[in-house]
Structure prediction request, 285 residues.
Amino acid sequence: MVSPDFQLVQLKNGSWSVRSVAEAETFHPVVGPVAEAEALYVRQLQLAERFARHSEGEFVIWDVGLGAAANVLTALRALRELPGQLRVVSFDHTLKPLRFALEHAAELGYYDGYEPACETLLANGAVTFQNGANQVRWQVHTGDFPALLGSPAARSWPSPNAIFFDAYSPAKNMAMWTLPLFRQLHERLGPAVPCTLATYSRATLLRVTLLLAGWFVGTGSATGEKEETTIAANSPDLLAQALGLDWLARARRSTSAEPMVEAVYRQMPLSPASAAALAAHPQFR
Ligand SMILES: C[S@@+](CC[C@H](N)C(=O)[O-])C[C@H]1O[C@@H](n2cnc3c(N)ncnc32)[C@H](O)[C@@H]1O
Prediction:
C-alpha cells in the first residue's frame, strides 16, 4: 500500500531503509538498519556480554524512537542464544512507521520471524514471547516522549540497563535533545542500576547537554556512517573512552555547544555559567 507519510529507499549498499516524508529524514541513511543497529547499540552497549552476566531479574532496554523497530529486532536477534529475561520498553509518538515497515518486511529483511510479535505489539501495545533461549516482554508507550517521561506513569516503568536513543536529528526534532529532557532521563535511572545510553550524534552540543544533565560521556564507536558516535552512562566505569580535558578545551572554543533549554534550535558557544558547570563535572576533576 502506498503511504503518504513514509517511503522505502534503497541505499547505495543495496539495503533498504524507511524514510519519513514529513521530516525528510531516512531512518538509517548510510549503512542501513541492521548494520547501524549492530554497531551503534548491540556492540557498543555490549548487550550480549551484559545480558549474559545479568543475573537478577529482567535486563531492561529503553528504545526511544521505536520507528520501524530495526534497533529492537537487531538486538533481539543478537541475544537469541542467551538465556534470561529481556524487557523492552519502546517509545514513539506514532506507530505508523512500524505499520509501514511491516508491510515492507520482505525488502527490509530484518523482520524475519518477528512479524507476529510486531503485529501483537501494534494491536495490544505489548507482547510476550520466546526469543530463542530467552523470554521477552516488549511494550510500547505511544505519545510524546518528553511528556511521557514527565507523567506519573513513568514511575512504574522498570529502570533501564541500556537506552537506544534514536530520535530525528536535533535541528528537526528539537524537543528530543533538550537539557531538561536528558536531565529528567538521568533522574529516572535507577541509582543502583548500571545504565548506558548510545546515540548516533557526536555533536559537541549533545555531549555538553548530556554532561550538564548529570551523565558521564564517552566517545562512541564508528558505525560505518559516522566515524564517531556518543555513549553516556550513569557511572564512569561503564565508559571505555571517557571524554577528557582535550575535548573540554575544544568544547570551550566551539561555536555550537550551549545546550537547548527548550525546543528551539539554535547554535551558540558555551555561556559562562555552562562552561563553569562543565569544568566542575566529576568527569573532568
Ligand atoms: C530515526 S526514527 C527511529 C528509527 C527506529 N529506531 C528504527 O530502528 O527503525 C525517529 C523516531 O523518533 C520518533 N519521535 C520523534 N519525536 C518524538 C517524540 N517527541 N516523542 C516520541 N517519539 C518521537 C519518530 O516518530 C520516529 O519514529
